[in-house]
Amino acid sequence: MLKMYLPRARRGGEAEFWEEGWSQQAVTDAVACCALHPLRDRLARLLPRDGVILDGGCGIGAWAIYYSRRGHRWLGVDFAVRALGTLKAAAPSAAVCAGRVDALPLADDAVDAYYSGGVIEHFEDGPRAALAEAHRVLRPGGLFLVVVPDLSPLRAALCPGRARLVCDGPRPVVGFRRVAAPEPDGAEAPAWARSEDLPFFQYLYAARDLRPLLAAAGFELLGDQGVGVQWALMELPAVQRLSAWLRGPILSAPADYYDRVPMAPWAQEPLIPAALPAPARHYLRRLLTLEDERLLLAGPALRLLQAVASNIRLYVCQKPR
Questions:
Q1: Tens digit of pLDDT for each residue in 174-185?
Q2: How far apart are CA 270 and CA 258, in angstroms?
Q3: DSSP H helices in 138-192
Q4: Residue 19 is assigned to a structural domain of this protein
Q5: Which of 235, 60, 200, 19 has the alpha carbon at shortest distance from 121?
Q6: 171-199 as b/e, with b when 16 or more CB fall inside 10 Å?
Q7: Residue 20: phi, psi to the nearest 5?
Q8: What is the CATH number of the domain that holds 144?
Q9: Of 29 and 254, more confident
Q10: Tell me, what's the pLDDT at 20?
């Protein structure tokens, strides 16, 4: 696995880190982005129509609002209280509760499904407590849907040594460090990894890293899949330049990929020119944005790309009955 570091005043595990980011995010834009997400149709097939779905670490509630409008019963929990206020202002009928995913304020066997989207990777000591809580609050037979940043073969190749530091001139913008297991940085870590100027943000988990942790928490893994090929490829400077040529700049600087991708619909399709005719744009949306493997001819090529260059990975788990 890789540890990822960003130049921020606070760490990724602190509520204030997320409050600052979400305070600059329009809820309507975030919800609209759900319709242009490669997990959209996959989650729709998995989420139960009956029962309560817990969104652990919901933030301003984009998925909660998106799927509540489609008939699902959604409960959002987050430790960023102001973000929950933003969610309630946008969706007054939404069910929300303040709390931490590693100490959920819920009874045993309380929910029928649990969605965890981009949360457990931010625990520097590892996700064991959060996974144990997920197992506790899920009813037997309930699904646990976990999404984390994927350490794909492409990302592994981009960090061939023990560490990698990406700079914009003299300014560090992101750091990566290989580790065998989740752990705080010790004396063996590079100086920049121990600096307050570049604090820990998240882990990039390879499937072989996270599967044992899910099993140790008591879950049965039903399957996992990497998605998000467009944004995985955007880590390559050449693809960033191609994106700017195809449809204008989405990122103001190449290193912005790691931290400042705009959460707005216009920025979710970096490799699809906006001026294309509607039929071509529709086809490319199914291929590159929603990643529909059912497309004739292109499906096998898409699956190969997902195996090599995925941005995130969805793990579908079940609490045994």
A1: 999 999 999 899
A2: 14
A3: 153-158
A4: yes
A5: 200
A6: ebbbbbbbbeebeebeeebbebbeeeebb
A7: -60, -45
A8: 3.40.50.150
A9: 29
A10: 82
Query: How many CB atoms sit inside 10 A of residue 99's CB?
Result: 18
Residue 128 in any domain: the answer is yes
What pLDDT is attached to residue 254? 66
How many domains is the chain partitioned into structurally? 1
Residue with tokens 């449809």: 247
Residue 255 has pLDDT above 80, yes or no: no
Domain-embedded: residue 272: no
Say what the pLDDT of residue 284 is.
93
Question: Would residue 276 count as lying in a domain?
Answer: no
What's the domain range around 143? 2-153+199-226+312-318
The 10 Å Cβ neighbour count of residue 216 is 11
Residue with tokens 């973000």: 83
Sequence-ordered list of residues with C-beta below 8 angstroms from that of 37, at least 6 positions apart, any chain: 268, 290
> Does the pLDDT of residue 225 top 90, yes or no?
yes
Mean pLDDT of 210-218: 97
CA 210 and chain centroid, separation? 14
For residue 169, how many other CB atoms are within 10 A of its CB? 6
Average pLDDT over residues 78-99: 92
Spatial separation of the C-alpha atoms in residues 264 and 294, rounded to whole Å = 27
Element (H, E) at 166: strand 163-168
pTM, rounded to two decimals: 0.94
**How far, in Å, are 90, 155, 210 from residue 223 at the CA level?**
34, 21, 12
